[in-house]
Amino acid sequence: MNAYLDTQVFIWLCQNQLDRLTPAARRTIEQTDLLVSPMVLLELEYLYEIGRLLQPPHPLLAHLQKQIGLRVCDYPFASVIETALFETWTRDPFDRVIAAHAKASNFSPLVTSDPRIRQQYPRAVW
Predict the structure, then answer these.
(1) Which backbone phi and psi does 4 adopt, to 5 degrees?
(2) I need a surface site. Which of 23, 25, 76, 125 has the fewest CB within 10 A?
(3) CA 101, CA 89: separation in Å to the nearest integer?
(4) With contact defined as beta carbons under 8 Å apart, do 102 and 112 qualify?
């Protein structure tokens, strides 16, 4: 089974801050094949450009690929955007596309600490 990681969870894993994760989040991370939407990489780049991250996304991704086998999902972007058109609960384009990506890809679990996503996406894990 696949599960997706939200941006904040991705960052915490890179920083080895496993204590920030709930037991349910840790279990999901340990027991599934992990994916991220390419939108997570774009959000990481944005955070790097504004100085909130010290490294650009590719070294971070390489670290998690090696450490936990994380992969970038290659589900067709047009299908993800078609799903995102109906995710009207947020104006945040990152949250909208990340949640839509998990939803479009077999309604997969999405590990997220974001309360708004957890409220709106029934397969959110936290």
Answers:
(1) -105, 150
(2) 23
(3) 15
(4) no
Domain boundary assignment for the chain: 2-125
Which residue stretches of 15-92 are H helix? 23-31, 38-49, 57-68, 77-84
Q: Are 61 and 45 in contact (CB under 8 A)?
A: no
60 close to 14: Cβ distance less than 8 angstroms: yes
Encode pLDDT of 48-96 as tens digits: 999 999 999 999 999 999 999 999 999 999 999 999 999 999 999 999 9
Q: What is residue 120's predicted lDDT score, i.e. its pLDDT? A: 97
123: left (phi over 0), alpha (psi -120 to 50) or beta: alpha
Full-model pTM: 0.94
Q: Three-state DSSP class for 69?
A: coil
The CATH topology of domain 2-125 is Rossmann fold (3.40.50)
